[in-house]
Amino acid sequence: MRRFFLPLIILFLPTVVHTQQWSPDRPGRAVSPVTVPAGQLSLEAGVRWERAEFSPVIPESFADPGVIYSHDIFVLPAGMARLGLGDHFELRLSSSYRRWVWEYDPNFLDGDNVDDPVIEKTDAGVQFLTVGIKSALMEERGVLPAMAMIAGLGLPRTGSGGYQVQYLAPDFALAFSHSLSPKVTLTYNFGTRWDGYVVTPIGYYTAAVAAQLHSRLAAFVEFYGDLPGHAPPIHALDAGISYALFDGFLIDGAIAYGLNSPGEKDDDPDLSNMIATDLAVEIGASWRLTLWE
């Protein structure tokens, strides 16, 4: 079984993509060190489907339990607003509406030798609100990369249903980028976040290469993963494109695929490994508005 974190964000950097003044933080996972110019508002939204299945790997002498957990997640939509407050500083707000359709067979893990029915459930609601900032720290200079700091805070009591968080959910990351050529850029992030439920931090990383294929068309490929302190790591690969319909409006699409199968050989697998997404597809758009000069 493949695993992927669902996530997504790739950047199209100012020397590589459609404009030197605006760099949407979608699609994909990696976040650009480029900030929204002062007085401009970047609205970025998309819809996404994610699929996961978890099948334990057991000795051949035991009966195969098959798939004990599966889900389909529909994000309709995920949205972010980024407001430039200075030449190198932006405010970020994000949330999403999610519909999580899942099935779980409890018989493999409960160990009570009772044939319990499969649990089927749908959880729908608004994801908790995340407030954040991005601050550009350094421009690219020779071998030194461009760098920015990104910080976010998930707020309790701002979601609905099962999408509330019990505690504050902070997220801190550093974003870097190198121009490999006039049309190709390498971007990478390193960060740590808390999910608002478990006090153990979750490390994460991204590494993405973006290329301008045409004056309006860009593409990327990206490797990324989660490094939870309480469970095996999860790694994934995604790729996608971005197309500028006109100045200040882009459409995009991406597909992601899990690369490893953490937890399938464990007697008591961690929940984060069981729900790690195997396949995801997303499409979306980004548009830029000037609020003041």
Query: Helical stretch count?
Result: 2
Per the CATH scheme, the topology name is: Porin
Strand content: over 45%
| CATH architecture level-2 label | Beta Barrel
| Overall 3D form | globular
Largest sheet: 12 strands, antiparallel, barrel
Q: What's the CATH class label?
A: Mainly Beta
Number of domains: 1
Strand order of the largest sheet: 1-2-3-5-6-7-8-9-10-11-12-13
- Span between N and C termini? 52 Å
Number of strands: 13
Contiguous runs where pLDDT drops below 50 for at least 5 residues: 1-20
**CATH H-level homologous superfamily name:** monomeric porin ompg
Structural commentary:
The chain is mostly beta strands and 293 residues long. The protein has a single domain, classed as Porin (Beta Barrel). The chain contains 2 helices and 13 strands; from the N terminus they run βββαβββββββββαβ. It has helices at 107-110, 271-274; strands at residues 40-54, 69-86, 89-104, 119-126, 130-138, 146-154, 169-181, 184-193, 202-212, 217-228, 234-246, 249-258, 279-290. It has a 12-stranded antiparallel barrel with strand order 1-2-3-5-6-7-8-9-10-11-12-13. Mean pLDDT is 87; it is low at 1-20.
